[in-house]
Amino acid sequence: MSLLTQITDDMKAAMKAKDDATLSTVRMLKAALKNKQIDLYGAQAKELSDEEVVAVVKAQIKQLKDAADAFKQGGREDMVSASLKEVAVLEKYLPAQMDDAALEAAVKGALSAAGLTVKADAGKAMGAAMKAVAGKADGSRVKKMVESILAAFVLGLAFHALTPGAAHAAVSDAQVISSIAYAMRVGRIILLLGGLMAVNTLLAGSFKYMAAGGNEDVGHAAHMEMINGLLGTIIIAGLFMGFTVALKNIGA
User: Is CATH 1.10.1510.10 the classification given to domain 3-91?
Assistant: First the structure.
Protein backbone atom coordinates (compact mmCIF):
# COMPACT_ATOMS: atom_id res chain seq x y z
CA MET A 1 0.00 0.00 0.00
CA SER A 2 1.35 3.40 -0.97
CA LEU A 3 1.73 6.19 1.58
CA LEU A 4 -0.93 8.24 -0.20
CA THR A 5 -3.41 5.38 0.19
CA GLN A 6 -2.49 4.94 3.84
CA ILE A 7 -2.97 8.67 4.51
CA THR A 8 -6.38 8.63 2.78
CA ASP A 9 -7.44 5.56 4.78
CA ASP A 10 -6.29 7.19 8.02
CA MET A 11 -8.30 10.30 7.22
CA LYS A 12 -11.42 8.20 6.66
CA ALA A 13 -10.79 6.32 9.90
CA ALA A 14 -10.40 9.59 11.82
CA MET A 15 -13.68 10.84 10.38
CA LYS A 16 -15.52 7.68 11.46
CA ALA A 17 -13.94 7.81 14.92
CA LYS A 18 -14.68 11.53 15.16
CA ASP A 19 -11.04 12.07 16.08
CA ASP A 20 -10.98 15.78 15.28
CA ALA A 21 -7.33 16.34 16.24
CA THR A 22 -6.01 13.57 13.96
CA LEU A 23 -8.46 14.49 11.20
CA SER A 24 -7.31 18.10 11.22
CA THR A 25 -3.66 17.10 11.00
CA VAL A 26 -4.18 14.58 8.20
CA ARG A 27 -6.32 17.04 6.24
CA MET A 28 -3.54 19.60 6.53
CA LEU A 29 -1.11 17.01 5.20
CA LYS A 30 -3.44 16.06 2.34
CA ALA A 31 -3.67 19.73 1.31
CA ALA A 32 0.13 20.07 1.36
CA LEU A 33 0.46 16.90 -0.73
CA LYS A 34 -2.06 18.19 -3.27
CA ASN A 35 -0.12 21.46 -3.59
CA LYS A 36 3.10 19.50 -4.08
CA GLN A 37 1.50 17.32 -6.74
CA ILE A 38 0.37 20.42 -8.64
CA ASP A 39 3.82 22.02 -8.30
CA LEU A 40 5.55 18.95 -9.69
CA TYR A 41 3.12 17.63 -12.28
CA GLY A 42 0.57 20.34 -12.95
CA ALA A 43 -2.60 18.98 -14.50
CA GLN A 44 -1.11 15.53 -15.07
CA ALA A 45 -2.94 12.69 -13.34
CA LYS A 46 0.24 11.49 -11.67
CA GLU A 47 0.45 10.60 -8.00
CA LEU A 48 3.35 11.48 -5.76
CA SER A 49 5.82 8.70 -5.06
CA ASP A 50 6.41 7.53 -1.50
CA GLU A 51 9.73 9.44 -1.50
CA GLU A 52 7.96 12.65 -2.52
CA VAL A 53 5.29 12.11 0.12
CA VAL A 54 7.97 11.61 2.79
CA ALA A 55 9.62 14.89 1.74
CA VAL A 56 6.32 16.73 2.24
CA VAL A 57 5.74 15.03 5.60
CA LYS A 58 9.20 16.08 6.76
CA ALA A 59 8.54 19.66 5.69
CA GLN A 60 5.26 19.69 7.64
CA ILE A 61 6.96 18.25 10.71
CA LYS A 62 9.67 20.89 10.54
CA GLN A 63 7.06 23.66 10.36
CA LEU A 64 5.25 22.26 13.37
CA LYS A 65 8.45 21.90 15.40
CA ASP A 66 9.47 25.46 14.53
CA ALA A 67 6.02 26.62 15.60
CA ALA A 68 6.33 24.69 18.87
CA ASP A 69 9.66 26.40 19.58
CA ALA A 70 8.09 29.80 18.92
CA PHE A 71 5.13 29.00 21.17
CA LYS A 72 7.50 27.84 23.91
CA GLN A 73 9.40 31.10 23.79
CA GLY A 74 6.10 32.93 24.06
CA GLY A 75 5.02 30.88 27.06
CA ARG A 76 2.13 29.20 25.19
CA GLU A 77 2.53 25.68 26.58
CA ASP A 78 -0.96 24.70 25.37
CA MET A 79 0.02 25.46 21.77
CA VAL A 80 3.33 23.67 22.23
CA SER A 81 1.47 20.54 23.28
CA ALA A 82 -0.97 20.80 20.37
CA SER A 83 1.87 21.21 17.84
CA LEU A 84 3.78 18.23 19.21
CA LYS A 85 0.65 16.07 19.05
CA GLU A 86 0.36 16.93 15.36
CA VAL A 87 4.02 16.00 14.92
CA ALA A 88 3.31 12.60 16.50
CA VAL A 89 0.49 11.99 14.02
CA LEU A 90 2.72 12.81 11.05
CA GLU A 91 5.81 10.92 12.22
CA LYS A 92 4.12 7.55 11.68
CA TYR A 93 4.32 8.24 7.92
CA LEU A 94 8.11 8.44 8.03
CA PRO A 95 10.21 5.34 7.31
CA ALA A 96 11.71 3.50 10.29
CA GLN A 97 14.94 5.28 11.19
CA MET A 98 18.27 3.50 10.63
CA ASP A 99 20.53 2.75 13.56
CA ASP A 100 24.13 4.01 13.40
CA ALA A 101 25.54 0.75 12.02
CA ALA A 102 23.00 0.56 9.20
CA LEU A 103 23.48 4.24 8.42
CA GLU A 104 27.26 3.87 8.24
CA ALA A 105 26.96 0.87 5.91
CA ALA A 106 24.50 2.68 3.63
CA VAL A 107 26.60 5.85 3.43
CA LYS A 108 29.85 3.96 2.86
CA GLY A 109 28.24 1.98 0.07
CA ALA A 110 26.84 5.09 -1.59
CA LEU A 111 30.14 7.00 -1.44
CA SER A 112 32.12 4.02 -2.69
CA ALA A 113 29.75 3.44 -5.62
CA ALA A 114 29.94 7.12 -6.59
CA GLY A 115 33.72 7.30 -6.17
CA LEU A 116 33.44 10.16 -3.66
CA THR A 117 36.43 10.00 -1.34
CA VAL A 118 37.67 13.53 -0.57
CA LYS A 119 36.24 16.39 1.48
CA ALA A 120 36.00 18.52 -1.65
CA ASP A 121 33.23 16.15 -2.76
CA ALA A 122 31.19 16.72 0.43
CA GLY A 123 28.26 18.28 -1.45
CA LYS A 124 27.99 15.42 -3.93
CA ALA A 125 28.54 12.94 -1.12
CA MET A 126 25.58 14.34 0.82
CA GLY A 127 23.36 14.00 -2.22
CA ALA A 128 24.40 10.39 -2.79
CA ALA A 129 24.06 9.54 0.90
CA MET A 130 20.60 11.10 1.29
CA LYS A 131 19.41 9.19 -1.75
CA ALA A 132 20.81 5.96 -0.32
CA VAL A 133 19.13 6.32 3.09
CA ALA A 134 15.81 7.23 1.42
CA GLY A 135 14.48 9.23 4.34
CA LYS A 136 15.47 6.64 6.94
CA ALA A 137 17.84 9.02 8.72
CA ASP A 138 17.75 12.69 9.63
CA GLY A 139 19.82 15.01 7.46
CA SER A 140 22.00 16.11 10.38
CA ARG A 141 22.88 12.48 11.15
CA VAL A 142 23.70 11.80 7.52
CA LYS A 143 25.91 14.90 7.33
CA LYS A 144 27.91 13.86 10.40
CA MET A 145 28.32 10.34 9.02
CA VAL A 146 29.47 11.62 5.61
CA GLU A 147 32.04 13.91 7.22
CA SER A 148 33.27 11.11 9.47
CA ILE A 149 33.64 8.62 6.63
CA LEU A 150 35.43 11.07 4.32
CA ALA A 151 37.84 12.04 7.10
CA ALA A 152 38.51 8.39 7.96
CA PHE A 153 39.15 7.57 4.31
CA VAL A 154 41.75 10.34 3.94
CA LEU A 155 43.52 9.31 7.16
CA GLY A 156 43.55 5.68 6.07
CA LEU A 157 44.87 6.63 2.67
CA ALA A 158 47.70 8.65 4.20
CA PHE A 159 48.64 5.67 6.39
CA HIS A 160 48.74 3.33 3.40
CA ALA A 161 50.81 5.84 1.47
CA LEU A 162 53.47 5.56 4.17
CA THR A 163 53.36 1.74 4.13
CA PRO A 164 55.55 0.12 1.42
CA GLY A 165 53.65 -2.08 -0.99
CA ALA A 166 50.21 -1.19 0.40
CA ALA A 167 49.37 2.04 -1.34
CA HIS A 168 48.50 0.73 -4.78
CA ALA A 169 46.24 -1.93 -3.30
CA ALA A 170 44.45 0.60 -1.11
CA VAL A 171 44.11 3.50 -3.52
CA SER A 172 42.06 3.53 -6.67
CA ASP A 173 40.97 7.14 -6.88
CA ALA A 174 43.42 9.20 -8.97
CA GLN A 175 42.10 12.46 -7.58
CA VAL A 176 42.85 11.42 -4.01
CA ILE A 177 46.36 10.26 -4.94
CA SER A 178 47.02 13.54 -6.70
CA SER A 179 45.82 15.60 -3.73
CA ILE A 180 47.97 13.71 -1.24
CA ALA A 181 50.98 13.78 -3.52
CA TYR A 182 50.62 17.53 -3.92
CA ALA A 183 50.41 18.00 -0.14
CA MET A 184 53.53 15.86 0.34
CA ARG A 185 55.47 17.82 -2.27
CA VAL A 186 54.55 21.06 -0.54
CA GLY A 187 55.57 19.46 2.74
CA ARG A 188 58.96 18.53 1.33
CA ILE A 189 59.56 22.13 0.25
CA ILE A 190 58.70 23.35 3.74
CA LEU A 191 61.01 20.72 5.21
CA LEU A 192 63.84 21.85 2.92
CA LEU A 193 63.46 25.40 4.19
CA GLY A 194 63.37 24.13 7.76
CA GLY A 195 66.44 22.02 7.07
CA LEU A 196 68.38 25.03 5.83
CA MET A 197 67.47 26.89 9.00
CA ALA A 198 68.55 23.94 11.15
CA VAL A 199 71.91 23.66 9.36
CA ASN A 200 72.39 27.40 9.69
CA THR A 201 71.73 27.11 13.44
CA LEU A 202 74.27 24.28 13.68
CA LEU A 203 76.96 26.26 11.83
CA ALA A 204 76.31 29.43 13.76
CA GLY A 205 76.63 27.55 17.04
CA SER A 206 79.87 25.98 15.87
CA PHE A 207 81.43 29.34 15.01
CA LYS A 208 80.31 30.85 18.31
CA TYR A 209 81.74 27.86 20.19
CA MET A 210 85.12 28.24 18.49
CA ALA A 211 85.11 31.97 19.20
CA ALA A 212 84.07 31.59 22.83
CA GLY A 213 87.60 31.09 24.08
CA GLY A 214 87.52 30.59 27.81
CA ASN A 215 84.06 32.16 28.32
CA GLU A 216 82.04 29.29 29.78
CA ASP A 217 78.65 30.99 29.49
CA VAL A 218 79.14 31.81 25.82
CA GLY A 219 80.57 28.37 25.18
CA HIS A 220 77.60 26.65 26.88
CA ALA A 221 75.05 28.72 24.91
CA ALA A 222 76.90 27.97 21.67
CA HIS A 223 77.01 24.26 22.56
CA MET A 224 73.21 24.18 23.12
CA GLU A 225 72.69 26.00 19.80
CA MET A 226 74.76 23.34 18.05
CA ILE A 227 72.73 20.54 19.65
CA ASN A 228 69.44 22.17 18.65
CA GLY A 229 70.68 22.65 15.10
CA LEU A 230 71.87 19.03 14.90
CA LEU A 231 68.63 17.58 16.30
CA GLY A 232 66.57 19.76 13.96
CA THR A 233 68.62 18.62 10.98
CA ILE A 234 68.22 14.94 11.88
CA ILE A 235 64.44 15.20 12.47
CA ILE A 236 63.81 17.17 9.28
CA ALA A 237 65.98 14.79 7.24
CA GLY A 238 63.97 11.84 8.57
CA LEU A 239 60.64 13.48 7.72
CA PHE A 240 61.91 14.40 4.26
CA MET A 241 62.92 10.80 3.62
CA GLY A 242 59.53 9.59 4.87
CA PHE A 243 57.66 11.88 2.49
CA THR A 244 59.94 10.79 -0.36
CA VAL A 245 59.26 7.11 0.34
CA ALA A 246 55.52 7.79 0.56
CA LEU A 247 55.52 9.57 -2.79
CA LYS A 248 57.38 6.63 -4.33
CA ASN A 249 54.88 4.16 -2.86
CA ILE A 250 51.88 5.92 -4.41
CA GLY A 251 53.69 6.27 -7.71
CA ALA A 252 53.73 10.07 -7.65
Answer: yes
